[in-house]
Structures are given as C-alpha cells and as structure tokens.
Amino acid sequence: MQEVTVVLWRKFGQLAAEEEFRRWAFGVARYEVLAWRRDKARDRHVFGDAVLELLAAEASQGAGTLDAQREALEECLQKLPPEQRAMVNAAYADGARIDRLAAQSGRTAMALYKVLHRIRLALTECTRRVLAREGLA
Q1: What is the per-residue pLDDT across 20-48, written as a single tens digit (0 to 9) for each?
Q2: Residue 92 lies in a domain
Q3: Cβ contacts of residue 90 below 8 Å, gap of 6+?
Q4: How many domains does the chain have?
Q5: Residue ranges of the alpha helices (H) in the chain?
Q6: 125 falls within a domain
C-alpha cells in the first residue's frame, strides 16, 4: 500500500482531471499489484488472478457508493447551522488540534468532543436519509 502511495505521488502530474483521481488511482494501484504479483509469482501464498480480478471489481463497484456517500454528506453539511459547520470544518482541517479548538471556543476538550459527536450523529442520520431518498441505502 505504501509503495502504491509513492507511485501515485510520483505520477501525480500525469493525472488529467482531479475528478478522475479515484479511477486513475485504482488503475495505478492495479498495475502496481500486478507487478508485485509478477515479482512474487513463485510464492505459494500469493492470490491468483481470479481473486485479484474479483477484488478489483469489488473496489470499482464500491467507488460509486463512496461518491454517493460523499455527495450526501456534502448536502448534509450544508444543512448544518453555520456555527456547527464551521466547527466541523475546523476540527477536520489539516493540523487541527482539539485542545486548541476547545480553547478558542471557550470549551473544554471533552465538551468539544461531545459537541462534535452529536454533530457526527446528526450527519450520519442525515446522510442515511439522503441515501435512502435516492434509493442507495
């Protein structure tokens, strides 16, 4: 997995469009797995081609589900009150630290964790409703 990540970083300039990242990354990962398999072909503990093809198909099918879930989550995030949306964005920003966010909001870290937990529960329920409405749940 780490080797695939290194290859993705090295080949990132070849990505034509950002919205195609998942499909492109799956393709790169597939070729890396095939190369690894070729190198390890004599090891009896390596999966056969049929298993690898099945896993690749499952991953590709799951990509559509992930996209639908991400879109539902985006919709639900937009429905949050602005203060809660800002709190979620701050908590999940790169380099975010709960202790700092808690201090900035005048809460203890535990209180902030509880608030974020309630928001996540609401987002989970909203996302389920959106997916069910679209016939995806």
Answers
A1: 788 888 888 888 888 877 777 666 666 67
A2: yes
A3: 96, 101
A4: 1
A5: 2-11, 21-39, 49-79, 82-91, 98-105, 109-133
A6: yes
DSSP SS3 for 92: coil
Of the pLDDT bands very low, low, confident and very high (cuts 50, 70, 90), residue 2 is confident
**Any idea what the Cα angle at residue 38 is, between residues 45 and 52, rounded to 5°?**
60
CA–CA dist 46, 67 (Å, integer): 31
Q: Which residue has the tokens 């630290």?
A: 97
Within-domain flag for 18: no
In which region does residue 97 sit, left (phi positive, over 0), alpha (psi from -120 to 50) or beta (all else)?
Answer: beta
Q: Looking at the domain assignment, is residue 127 inside a domain?
A: yes
Please, which residues have CB within 8 angstroms of residue 107's CB and are 6 or more apart in sequence? 115
- A 10 A CB-CB count for 13 gives 6
Q: Model-level pTM?
A: 0.58
CATH of the domain at 86: 1.10.10.10
CB–CB of 59/26 below 8 Å?
yes
**What is the domain extent for residue 85?**
70-137
